Structure formats: C-alpha cells, structure tokens
Amino acid sequence: LRSCYGGEPPLPIMASGIYEGGQLISCLLLERVGRQSPPFRALKAVAGFIRRTQNLHALQQDYRYAVSHDHKTGLLNYDSYLRYLDAAHEALFSAFGMVGVHIADLRDFNYRFGARKGDELLLFTAGLLSEIFGAENCYRMSGAGFLVLCPDITYDAFAARCGQLQKRLEEAYPGWTVCCIFSTEMAYCSQAW
C-alpha cells in the first residue's frame, strides 16, 4: 500500500479481494472508512461496483475465448493458427507433424441429409481430432477444413494417430465414400517446414 500512496496510506483503510473461481480478479481498496460504521456497510455501498467488476471479468474471458475459438466446434480458429505460426520457430521442435482434414462435399452432404446432419459431421470430426491429437493442436481453418499440428512427435506415433483417425471416420460414416481427404506431412529439424 505504501507504494500506491507514496508514503503512509490514510487511515482507516479497508481492502477486499474480489475472487472468481478461487482466483483474485480485482482488489477493492476503501480509504477513510468511518470508524463508527461497520465494514460490511462500506462493502454494501460498493456492491454494485463489485458485481460490475465480476461481470466485466467474465465478459473479457468470453471475448478472449470467442476471438480465438470457432463458435461451432470449439476448436481453435484460423486467427489462433496465425498467432501460433508467428510465435513458432523451427528450432523449437525436433520433429513436426501436420494433418490436414477436409470434409469432401460438405455442401452435398448437407443437401442430401440436412444441415443438422452436416453439423453433426463437423462436430464429430472436431471431437475426434481433439480426442486423438489434443484440442490444443487442432484448428478449424474453414467451413469444412481442419488442420492439426503435432510438434515433437515421432513418426510412428504420428502415423498411428493418423491411421486411428481415418479408421474411426470411416467406421462412423461408411456410406459416405470420401468423407475426408488427408494431407499428412512430417518434418524434422534438419529440414525446412
């Protein structure tokens, strides 16, 4: 407190932390709280401020999530992918695997089976990618396109996960002959990616 006031703070003073989910999100500091009035009266007087602070924090959290995630699938979006590329450097990884998944003829699928079934296919694919590769590595790039980045993975582990993905998609949608087009790449530190 001394650093905030450039010396001794005025007394009496009351400080109260505002917590959400066990994490301090804001701190309320009241100066010159009357000695004759109980502290809860002072807090009651600023209860609206506390609620607005908590609501603002919740809105900021929601905004950060909405900016970085696809609203339909919950996966990271294209902007998140671009931020990842800006921050990534090839010297950080010993190996790097990349899987591109495109749901072929999603418009035709929607036309034949309905938009709800098309959304189910998108959500199923997104959930499967998250389950197999981890949600932090999966990006929805476009309406029917997904990209998975696998840093520091061995070729055998990468190939096994790709095989598992293809098998599970074919099991779930057997009548849809070309459900997904896979593009898989594996690069090592000595090669440019």
Describe the fold and architecture.
A hairpin with a 2-residue loop joins strand 1 and strand 2 (23-31). This protein is of the alpha+beta class. The strands form two sheets. Strands 3-5-6-4-7 form a five-stranded mixed β-sheet. Strands 1-2 form a two-stranded antiparallel sheet. Helix 6 runs antiparallel to helix 7 (155-172). The protein is built from seven helices and seven strands, in the order αββααβαβααββαβ. 46% of the residues lie in helices and 24% in strands. The longest helix is centred in the N-terminal third of the chain and has 22 residues, at 47-68. The model is unreliable at 177-182 and 189-193 (pLDDT under 50). It has helices at residues 2-5, 39-45, 47-68, 78-87, 106-113, 115-133, 155-172, and strands at 13-20, 23-31, 76-77, 95-103, 138-140, 145-151, 180-188.
Regions with little confidence, pLDDT below 50 for 5+ residues: 177-182, 189-193
The geometry reads as: elongated
Main pleated sheet: 5 strands, mixed
* Gyration radius over CA: 26 Å
Strand and helix order: HEEHHEHEHHEEHE
Proportion of residues in β-strands? 15-25%
Spatial separation of the terminal alpha carbons: 51 Å
Instruction: Count up the helices.
Output: 7
The class by helix and strand makeup works out as alpha+beta
Summed over residues and divided by their number, the pLDDT gives a mean of 77
Give the strand order of the largest sheet, numbering strands 1, 2, ... along the chain: 3-5-6-4-7
**Secondary structure tally: strands:** 7
What proportion of the residues is helical, as a percent range?
A: 40-55%
